[in-house]
Amino acid sequence: MKFEIVHDVFADSPRETQENVFEFTFHHTKYNLPNELGIRAEAFDSWEDMASYLKPRYALVVPVHMYDHSGTYLSVKSFGCSWDSGRVGFAVLSKERMLKEFGRKYITNKLNERLMKILEQEVADYTMWLNGECYGVQILDDDGEMLDCQYGFYGMEAARESAVAYMSHYGEVMTE
Predict the structure, then answer these.
(1) What end-to-end distance do the CA atoms of the chain give, in Å?
(2) Is residue 45 pLDDT above 60, yes or no?
């Protein structure tokens, strides 16, 4: 028995398939990126203007940056390249969502660290999807016949972890 990791060419955006904590409002003239808040960039004179509008309405407002060169990469940290990168928008956490998910009205340092890890993963998943780094795992018997499969993994590491878990599951099933 073995596994194969294959490209998932039909993978849906993690913004549609996952339960996301943050909402994205991204604005770019060449890309159709998520604008889950439905706000128009033209209504603001600058990113700072948009941030001033968002901050009183949300529990957390985090700038998101994009690097566009041999792929498109998003990050909550600046890429430091003024030629191929810049701010693309914001990720926001609603006050209602914070209360529902974390039972808090205010963000402590510890909660902020946790929220930033969540946001970094949401941004990373979306970046992997954007660049076609989507995979499926197929479990094959010794003759190459597929026993099971699962798709929708963003990134090779997630696919590999799933494959290892699948293999251990099938090893247990076959020895029982």
Answers:
(1) 16
(2) yes
